[in-house]
Amino acid sequence: MMVERRPVLTFMTHALLILGIVIMLLPIYVAFVTSTQSIETLNSATQVIPMLPGHDFATNYQTALVGSSQYNIPPALLLLWNSFLMALAIAVGKIILALISAYAVVYFNFRFKMLFFWAIFLTLMLPVEVRIVPTYDIVINLGMLNTFAGLTLPLIASATATFMFRQFFMTIPRQYAEAAAIDGAGPVRFFIDVVLPLSKTNIVALFIVIFIYGWNQFLWPLIITSSDQSLHTIVMGLMQIADTLGQIPNWNFIMAEVMLATIIPVLIVVIMQRWFVKGLMETDK
């Protein structure tokens, strides 16, 4: 069957794609350009935001990285490190807990198995605002306020990841488990040697999604580390810079930290994009 080419339709398709790219990249470009300007240029009432990079790139990014008490700027290096550790701990913890939970639900038979599973799943219907008050109370009672454990442990449980791994494990043929049992492999050996290798693309895909989820956390770190700035994250640092008490914000430093805050998530996605796409679209068996 011969495919008919329509130049007008092809042109419109490409034009829409280009327009979509411009719409998505323009805010990032404006943020980068703003991060290279001086305070005087941005605060000038007679000039709009420049569309070409300025000459203060090195100064602005150095100030953002090491911090400045004069401009109320926390050191971005510490904030980025805290955000990375928090996001990594949340992602690894969620995946490990979800893998074990889903494996138990699929491959073990015990009373009220499905009741426990649906109890986990129903937590998805509870908004964060409903769960955050009792969670905060538990953290206080356990003495984990202003600690890294209090920052990460309450965010590790994941009904979504458990459900997704359960659905994937159910697609693995039962003959694999039977063959492993005949060869003398127990549940732990079957999990490590068979289930985990088959799940690697799904694990990577979920890791990227959960890592970015942890990286973007704001409300919980704000509540749990309000009195300990050494545990603040990059998102909280942006709020601190923008909080100028009625004065004009230093948009060049704010945008410099915004650009710095995007580097690690972008690198994670770029490095793992091949596995990410396979994990979302293919079943690696």
TrEMBL record:
This is sn-glycerol-3-phosphate transport system permease protein UgpE. GO terms for cellular component: plasma membrane. The chain crosses the membrane at residues 12-32, 84-108, 115-133, 145-165, 203-223, 253-277. The complex is composed of two ATP-binding proteins (UgpC), two transmembrane proteins (UgpA and UgpE) and a solute-binding protein (UgpB). It is found in: Cell inner membrane; Cell membrane. Pfam families: BPD_transp_1. Keywords: Cell inner membrane, Cell membrane, Membrane, Transmembrane, Transmembrane helix, Transport. Belongs to the binding-protein-dependent transport system permease family. NCBIfam families: PRK10973.1. It is a multi-pass membrane protein. Its main location: membrane. Part of the ABC transporter complex UgpBAEC involved in sn-glycerol-3-phosphate (G3P) import. Probably responsible for the translocation of the substrate across the membrane. PANTHER family: ABC TRANSPORTER PERMEASE PROTEIN MG189-RELATED-RELATED, SN-GLYCEROL-3-PHOSPHATE TRANSPORT SYSTEM PERMEASE PROTEIN UGPE. GO terms for biological process: transmembrane transport. Residues 80-272 form the ABC transmembrane type-1 domain. InterPro entries: MetI-like (IPR000515), MetI-like_sf (IPR035906). It comes from the Bacteria.
